[in-house]
Write a structure and sequence with these properties.
Layout: H1 4-20, E1 23-28, H2 34-46, E2 50-53, H3 56-63, E3 79-84, H4 87-100, E4 105-111, E5 114-116, H5 118-125, H6 130-161
Antiparallel strand pairs: 1-3, 1-4, 2-3, 4-5
Helix pairs in contact: 1-3, 4-5
């Protein structure tokens, strides 16, 4: 049981987490074992994501003062929250883990101040990460540039193989 000071510290810590995180994902974890939770935390930590089991009643108090207040309806039952900067990576890790462990349920989330329902979180999980999107764009640009160069080279080769007509040639006398 937490004393009053511990509760206030918990509320202020959670308020800061909800306010400062660009991505917040809410999950239910009933039935997961401690080793499974530790494995998930470890995967999340590798990407700078904090995965925290919450105390629903006092977490709802922390939510009241934040941009995430609309998430409070999802805090019932055994709830855990992922706090991070990259919503796509958070959703992707949680979604992949949920496929392997049916006891983890993705419930809702927030990405850049926008509330996501369960389907929205799954859609975000399927998006390419920023690095993947950049790589695709660079690939497209490189392909376009190489096509342009090959077209120009083919054109110049055709031009060089045409017989040159020189109007200044004088007839032999």
């Amino acid at each position: 049981m937490m004393n009053k000071e511990q509760k206030q510290n918990y509320i202020s810590e959670m308020t800061k987490q909800f306010e400062n995180s660009k991505a917040v994902m809410v999950t239910h974890y009933q039935g997961l074992t401690m080793p499974q939770l530790d494995e998930l935390r470890s995967k999340m930590r590798e990407h700078g994501i904090i995965f925290k089991i919450t105390k629903n009643r006092i977490t709802k108090l922390a939510l009241e003062k934040t941009k995430c207040k609309d998430l409070s309806k999802y805090f019932n039952g055994p709830t855990a929250v992922a706090f991070g900067e990259d919503a796509i990576m958070s959703a992707r890790i949680l979604s992949k883990f949920a496929k392997d462990n049916e006891n983890l349920k993705l419930i809702a989330g927030i990405m850049n101040n926008e509330i996501l329902d369960q389907a929205g979180v799954q859609n975000v999980a399927n998006l390419p990460t920023l690095d993947e999107a950049r790589a695709k764009i660079i690939g497209i640009l490189n392909a376009s540039a190489s096509k342009l160069v090959s077209i120009l080279l083919a054109r110049s080769e055709k031009m060089s193989s045409l017989p040159a007509e020189n109007s200044e040639t004088k007839p032999k006398e």
